[in-house]
């Protein structure tokens, strides 16, 4: 009985004991044979949300009685809440922005970046001269065609690979000839379930060969610290690396206090990007950017501009289909907008990674992160905020 008790998240046990809800959305981690548990969930009248075989994990909505019965199976290792994650960002701002105008030989050609975000709006800068949206999956509203009812995913897509079509190249992305595979796991207010995110990462890895996905960009932070959930992400990141896919994440928005960094940003098998403010003559820390260290790890790994970045605007009221029929958006009144957040910095580095993979598709994760760090210049601020510093493209790119 003691071992069964230890297999349940203490907070979930308290909620069940106090009879807070009639059912719970949970993550079930299995040592082996998750298919057996999948069948049992259905027999207990549970609602199966996701089966994530890469990490032997199942998401389901179950009654308290069903949870107790599932716990009795020896292959079940742990059950916890399917917690929420939040998109990184502190709001849209009107200012001067950052423009990527320098020309290099590398443009991200034939490299696809997987994005788990709020979706993507069919913006002219992503459709001209050719469609950059190679794939779109909607885990929130189950629509077939691309849309973005929050705007965050579209903005970040523009930083990564926008063509600058409507600005005649002024506001183009880092890898202007790259492409994206967008999975909508976050709703209109920027919240998403951990299970949807894990399922999205698995889907992108499964499609990495077909679409040449070399980078997966994850612009969120966990709403609460749950080391079991973090361990699931670590397992998934290891699988990505084995498939020659690099994970890029923002440092988060816990402020500059030393040791404020948390969640997936602390994992050693991803590239963690902090934020700096480059809007004035002197570069300074972005005041919301989370700071290391974490245990013996030096996180973040590096940093990039995070304040008043200019990229693609969205019509968040646009719905891409009605009664199964595709709908087309009207022209945007303002095609570009400004935004601040460490997710902008991570999107920039994701685009840089696409350029490096174009130059050498066989780069390992260790090679990639070493190249990025050696090309960085340290700024006059704590290393726990900036990591190895900001990338000097003249050092990095041919």
TrEMBL record:
Keywords: Hydrolase, Protease, Serine protease
PANTHER family in the cross-refs: PEPTIDASE S8, SERINE PROTEASE APRX
Top-rank taxon, per record: Bacteria
Residues annotated as the enzyme's active site: 117 (charge relay system), 152 (charge relay system), 343 (charge relay system)
Organism per entry: Clostridium aciditolerans
GO biological process, one term: proteolysis
GO molecular function: serine-type endopeptidase activity
Family: Belongs to the peptidase S8 family.
Domain named Peptidase S8/S53: residues: 108-376
Name under which the protein is recorded: S8 family serine peptidase
């Amino acid at each position: 009985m003691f071992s069964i008790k230890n297999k349940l998240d203490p907070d979930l046990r308290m909620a069940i004991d106090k009879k807070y809800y009639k059912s719970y959305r949970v993550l079930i981690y299995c040592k082996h044979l998750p298919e057996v548990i999948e069948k049992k969930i259905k027999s207990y009248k549970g609602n199966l949300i996701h089966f994530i075989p890469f990490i032997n994990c199942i998401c389901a909505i179950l009654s308290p009685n069903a949870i107790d019965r599932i716990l009795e199976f020896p292959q079940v290792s742990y059950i916890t809440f399917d917690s929420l994650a939040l998109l990184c960002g502190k709001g849209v701002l009107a200012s001067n922005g950052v423009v990527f105008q320098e020309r290099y030989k590398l443009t991200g050609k034939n490299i696809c970046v997987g994005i788990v975000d709020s979706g993507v709006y069919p913006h002219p800068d992503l459709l001209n001269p050719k469609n950059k949206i190679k794939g779109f999956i909607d885990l929130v509203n189950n629509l077939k065609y691309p849309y973005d009812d929050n705007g965050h995913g579209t903005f970040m897509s523009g930083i990564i690979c926008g063509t600058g079509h409507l600005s005649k190249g002024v506001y183009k992305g880092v890898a202007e000839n790259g492409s994206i595979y967008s999975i909508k796991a976050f709703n209109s207010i920027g919240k998403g379930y951990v299970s949807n995110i894990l399922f999205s990462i698995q889907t992108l890895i499964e499609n990495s060969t077909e679409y040449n996905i070399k980078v997966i960009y994850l612009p969120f932070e966990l709403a609460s610290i749950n080391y079991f959930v973090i361990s699931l992400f670590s397992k998934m990141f290891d699988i990505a690396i084995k498939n020659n896919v690099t994970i890029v994440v923002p440092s988060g928005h816990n402020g500059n206090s030393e040791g404020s960094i948390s969640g997936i940003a602390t994992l050693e098998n991803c590239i963690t990007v902090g934020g700096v403010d480059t809007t004035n003559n002197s570069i300074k820390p972005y005041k919301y950017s989370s700071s290391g260290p974490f245990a013996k790890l030096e996180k973040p790994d590096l940093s990039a501009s995070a304040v008043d970045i200019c990229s693609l605007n969205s019509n968040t009221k646009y719905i891409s289909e009605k009664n199964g029929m595709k709908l087309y958006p009207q022209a945007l009144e303002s095609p570009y907008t400004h935004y601040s957040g460490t997710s902008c910095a991570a999107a920039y580095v994701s685009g840089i990674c696409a350029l490096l993979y174009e130059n050498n598709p066989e780069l390992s994760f260790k090679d990639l992160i070493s190249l990025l760090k050696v090309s960085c210049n340290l700024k006059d601020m704590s290393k726990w905020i900036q990591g190895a510093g900001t990338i000097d493209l003249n050092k990095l790119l041919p």
